[in-house]
Structure formats: structure tokens, C-alpha cells
Amino acid sequence: MNIRRLRPTTALVGAAALGLTTLTACSTNVGDGRTDGKLDVVASFYPMQFLAQRIGGSAVHVSSLTKPGVEPHDLEISPRQTADLSKAGLVVYLKGLQPSVDRAITQAEPKQVADAASYTSMEDHGTEVEGEHERGGEGEEGEAGHEGHDHFGGAAADPHIWLDPVRYAQVAKGVGKALEKADPEHAATYKKNTTALVKELNTLDQDFRSGLKGRSSDTFITTHAAFGYLAERYGLRQEAISGLDPESEPSPARVRGLHTIAKKDKVNTVFFETLVSDRTARTLAGDLHLRTDVLDPIEGIGSKSRGDDYIQVMRANLNALKKALGTK
Q1: Are 18 and 40 spatial neighbours (Cβ–Cβ below 8 Å)?
Q2: Distance between CA atoms of 195 and 212, rounded to whole angstroms?
Q3: Phi and psi for 301 in degrees, rounded to 5?
Q4: 142: which residues sit within 8 A by CB, 6+ positions away?
Q5: How many angstroms separate the CA atoms of 126 and 190, rounded?
Q6: Which member of 6, 25, 105, 313 lies 3.0 to 4.6 Å from 299 by CB, making a disulfide possible if both were Cys?
């Protein structure tokens, strides 16, 4: 099942708390990628920020390019943000996901970059959504401003690697190495923190494996195809209402197909996302007399998130899947 864009938002608490795109007036930057002795790390959006903060710890100052309320894929970079990239000691991003970030990085030429896409394998999960959603590449959607995902090897690669704890752990290791290279003085700290985070992600993976055993169904229906890596990892089948774009309307044929799938595969829940309209999901659920619940693609943490960070929200996702799939 193909996935395509991220829709909600990141939610790094506020610009003042995390220093989102600018340095505070009292801080000092001497042009070496540091502020007040800490390595300046710029993350493109929440999943990258989470890694930088957990691995960097107190040795880094982390800011994010994607502010609360901004859909990551549609982010447009300001000249000031581009300037901040040029001064950063390290930029952590996912190449191809946010075209404006890619362009800004090329222009700014930051000292060090860590591209999450280079640390794990990227796949095109395809899509079972017919009609306009069956297109193999994302370039055809360029007129809508969504030209991003064909950057992964020329295919419509699924960017949501962080929703697979195993792949996310691979990315964490890559980010840890990048931090060591950018700031050798604190290499021991980064190694220690990377090891601890990878262990936590491995535990999360094992909890998904054990938690999803004994289920009565493998199929779940969700707003858009954001969970292909997760489904592949744990032997599930994702069925997306809107396919590649969470804001697009499903075709009548797709709706009929979902009716058939829901009955055949004993689906009891239609998932939606907290920061995307739930209208279509609730309409489908109402037609089929199914319940609704949240399955969060974790593009950001906000007031409606079921947890304060990536790990907590992933565990909330696991509990939602267990309930929907009828685990014993």
C-alpha cells in the first residue's frame, strides 16, 4: 500500500521554548555552528527533531523548520530560515519529503547534513486505490504542489519510515554518527544516547510484534496511506480511503470497494487523524456501522496527540490497532 504525504503538522512546542528558526537575543553564535557552546542542529520536522533531541541531549540546541500548524510537505522556507541553515552545525532532514527544504539546503550549503533517507531502505508500497490514486509516480501531482516523493530513486517511495520502529532505529544510528562527526568533542555522549534510543525502539518493535498476535483480522482502514511500512513490518494490510493525498475525496468506486473489504475482512474500525478532517472517515464508518478511532502518523505532536512524544504516541497507535484488529 503506497503512502504518500504527511498531512498533519509538527508540534514542537512554541518558537520561544525551542528556538524554532531563530536564536535568542542573549545567545552568541560565533559562526562555527554553535550557540553558547552547544551545537546548533536544525531539524526539518518532528520525527527528525525527536531524534536530534534524544541523541543530542544537553550538548545540542535543536530547532525545527516546520512550525506548529504547518503541514510538513507543503512547508515553504523563508530567507531567514535559509540563513539559519547556513549557520547550523548540523541539519537533519528527510530528502524528497519537503522540496523547499531540499532547495534551501542546496542554497545554504550547511556545514553538515544528515539525510534520513540515506540511512535505511525506501520502498514504493504501491496503492490499491483506483483511478487517480493508482499513478505510479508523484510527479503527476506536481500541479498541486506535491512533487516531492518521486525523489526517492525515481519512484513514488513511501516517506513514512519513522512509523516502522526498525527503520527508525536505523535512522537513529545514522543521525548519531552525523552528530559525532559534527561534534567530536561530545561523541561519547552521542554514542551512549544513540544506544539507549535504539534499545527503546527495539523494545517498541517487540511490543508491536507481541501485542498484535492472536488478532482476528489483518486489515485496517485509515484516512490516507501513511502506514505502509508499519503494515509491512507486522503483517498487516492497510486500506486507505483517500490514498496518496489525505485531503482528496475518494472515488465512488473506492468507497464501494471499501464497503466490500470491510465486510469480507471483518473490519470494525475506521481510523482518522487528529489534524486532518475526519468527515470522510466518519461518513464511511456511519454507512458501515463501524466505530472510529485515531491512528496517528506522528508528523508532529500537538494538543490532540495521545502522548507527549514519538514513543508514547506509537504505543497509543499500538493500543488502537490491538482493539481494531481484535487481538486476544
Answers
A1: no
A2: 26
A3: -110, 125
A4: none
A5: 36
A6: 6
Task: Burial-class residue 33 by CB neighbours within 10 Å (0-12, 13-18, 19+).
Answer: buried
Contact 223/273 with Cβ under 8 angstroms? yes
Q: How far apart are CA 12 and CA 93, in angstroms?
A: 15
Can you tell me the distance from the alpha carbon of 306 to that of 308, in angstroms, rounded to the nearest whole number? 7
Look up residue 60 and give its amino acid. V
CA 189 vs CA 62, 178, 199, 311: distances in Å: 16, 13, 16, 21
pLDDT digits (tens, 9 = 90+) for 241-273: 876 555 667 778 888 888 999 989 999 998 988
245 residue type, one letter: D
- Taking the C-alpha atoms of residue 325 and residue 12, their distance in angstroms, rounded to an integer, is 32
How far apart, in Å, are the Cα atoms of 85 and each of 24, 57, 218?
16, 20, 43
With residue 221 as reference, give the H or E element that holds it: strand 219-222
Whether 276 and 246 have beta carbons less than 8 Å apart is answered as: yes
Q: What are the grid coordinates assigned to 192, written together?
A: 551512549
CA distance 178 to 180: 5
The pLDDT tens digits for 83-133 are: 999 999 999 999 988 999 999 999 999 999 999 999 999 987 654 443 333
What does the block give as the cell for 232? Answer: 509491512
